[in-house]
Every structure is written in C-alpha cells, then in structure tokens.
Amino acid sequence: MQQFQVISDSLNIRSAPIVDEANQIATLPKGYIVSKIKNSDNDKWWKVATILEGKTLEGFVAQKFLNPVTKFSIKTVLKIDV
After folding, report:
1. Which residue in 43, 47, 62, 78 has a CA-CA distance of 20 to 30 Å to 26?
2. What is residue 63's DSSP assignment?
3. Which residues pair with 52 in a beta bridge?
4. What pLDDT is recorded for position 74?
5. pLDDT digits (tens, 9 = 90+) for 54-70
6. Nearest CA among 54, 53, 64, 65 for reference residue 10
7. Which of 29, 48, 27 is CA-nearest to residue 37?
8. What is the pLDDT of residue 1?
9. To 10 degrees, the CA torsion angle through 55, 59, 65, 69?
10. pLDDT at 70
11. Over pLDDT 90: what percentage of the chain?
C-alpha cells in the first residue's frame, strides 16, 4: 500500500466518504502517515488505514489533504572540491 502524509493542520478520518459530524472516527494531526487502501466512488475521497494510539483505524479522508511519502536512499556521497 502506498503511504501518504497529512499536509493540513489536521484531518478527520470518517466512516463514510461524506462530511458529517456523525461519521467522524478520529482527527489525524499534520504529518501523520496513512496507507491508501483504495479510491472511493467519489474521487475526492480515499479509503485509508492507519494506527492511532495503538488502534488500527480504517476510514475515509479527503485526498486533497494528503501528499505521497517519498523515501530516498543515499548510497553515494559526492566530494566537491572548492
């Protein structure tokens, strides 16, 4: 599963892909990592999974508030003569 990072100050994870106080599961802080499970029927929402306070959560988030997590591996050190 591809991982994404919350880029807004906070992001609500919901039980359905719609904004409604009754379906809010939890609030994820900025920088939090989620794993995308799949797109929902509405392209603006993704089903994701994450672990928060030791509990596995699955739910929907607005994808516009996520950026892909990029992992870089430095295998070569360059020496620059000045």
Report:
1. 43
2. G
3. 55
4. 54
5. 999 999 999 999 999 97
6. 65
7. 48
8. 78
9. 60
10. 78
11. 77
